Amino acid sequence: MKIKIVNKSKHRLPLYETNASAGVDLRANLDEPVVLKPLERSLIPTGLFIELPVGYEAQIRPRSGLAIKKGITLLNTPGTIDADYRGEIKIILANISNEEFVVNDGERIAQMVIASHEQAEWIEVDELKETERGAGGFGSTGTK
């Protein structure tokens, strides 16, 4: 799949680190470091702009290494970039640790996965077909 991208950052284009990678890493594009205090969040620019084909979205997800090692995650996860959005990709980075975290220019802060999707046609009905599970949710199927 070919996707048009404008790179206004100081960094190379995102790339797949292995030939089986589902996502590409996104880098912070900063003029100066951003300090995230515990429980603080910040909108971090990437300098990237994309043009997706209709029927596709870009999903923005946390990086597992930052999450487990530093307690850094993303809010609104996964974030969705729609095919008609033309603005800069920005990352809502959150520090859920007890220590400050410094985001430096060029640091890999998130990953982006391109996925196809469908738009549903809603059919209003008076009732839904019964299932064994029914309305059970939030752990209703057990823990084992």
List the helices and strands and how they pair.
Layout: E1 4-7, E2 23-27, E3 34-36, E4 41-45, E5 48-51, E6 56-61, H1 64-70, E7 72-74, E8 79-81, E9 90-95, E10 101-103, E11 108-116
Strand order of the largest sheet: 2-11-6-8
Q: Tell how many strands the DSSP assignment holds.
A: 11
Structural class: mainly beta
Which whole number gives the mean pLDDT?
Answer: 95
Query: Count the helices. How many?
Result: 1
Query: What portion of the residues fall into strands of 2 or more residues?
Result: 35-45%
What is the chain-wise order of helices and strands? EEEEEEHEEEEE
Biggest beta-sheet profile: 4 strands, antiparallel
Instruction: Output the CATH topology.
Output: Deoxyuridine 5'-Triphosphate Nucleotidohydrolase, Chain A
CATH architecture assignment name: Distorted Sandwich
The total domain count is 1
Q: Report helical residue fraction.
A: under 10%
Low-confidence segments, given as residue ranges, are none
CATH H level, superfamily name = Deoxyuridine triphosphatase (dUTPase)
The whole-angstrom Rg is: 19 Å
| Straight-line distance between termini | 40 Å
CATH class reads Mainly Beta
Q: Which quaternary structure do these chains form?
A: single chain
How would you sum up the global shape?
A: globular
